[in-house]
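Possible regression after last week's pipeline update?

I re-ran a chain I had predicted before the update to compare outputs. Posting the input and the new output here so someone can diff against the archived version. Not blocking, just want to make sure nothing changed silently.
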Amino acid sequence: MREQAARQQAALVHPPFVVWGLAAPPLSPHRVVDIDRGPSYCTSITLGYGDGAASVQVTTFGWFARRDRPDIESALREIGTGSHDTDTTIRVGAARAPARLRTDRTAWVATLTTPTAADVVVTGRGVPFDAVGLARVDELASYWTEYRRRGGEQPRPWPVGLDPHRRLVDAELATRTNRASRRLRFERAVRAQRVIARCDRARAMAVVRGMTEQVCALRADAAWFADPALRARAIAETVRSAALSEDVPSGPAQRAWLVWATTREQGDREAWARAWQRWAVGGS
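New output (post-update):
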């Protein structure tokens, strides 16, 4: 139990998607303010900086969430009326990104899309908007320290769904998905795999590529793949086997694929095809 708890705490140090925080001006303390979770994914992470009269909060919406661009009206409910909107820019890393800004007498809120395609909402009180810059936050250890000091509840491990993997497979099998969309879905699946397996980028890329290559090979070589029910089952089992190392009914075929991916021998490719055929007709 202690080892499991230690692994969960270690996993919380690294966010499940690219998170943005305050780079300037320097405000302390900094902490995790809020985490919004869906049933199988983390939808947003809010980081807070400063206290009292001068404070900034940065909310990053994750790519696991199926959501629209942040609604500036909902983000501004606490600011009240008497405000006005402006199209402006904000420093994000080494560049500036377009932002929609609303201000009133005491506070402001800005919405933007970062270079990593993340939607971000930034709110500030007592801090000039022009002085604000954002940067990526790669680890949250110090943010959790302040969160716990303030009596926050014990954080739970990041929930991560397999939607990015499934969407990538859908894109690979589609006939009209453009390259840019496929690249974006590939990157999202790789990020999800890094969170799921706690592995480096190279390993995650290998897993995701192997997953998509196998599904595409089934489409090209297996006549039974045209059956919608068998196709759906094969895709679901391939995703779960690759992403989670789960023991699935098509396990012999999954293992045969890994052998062929290593040897690239024709005999091993044929053994893989036979294993899938036995699975398709009800064998194992």
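Follow-up from reviewer: compared with the archived run. Strands lie at 19-24, 30-37, 42-51, 54-61, 84-92, 95-103, 107-113, 119-125, 133-137. Marking as no regression found.
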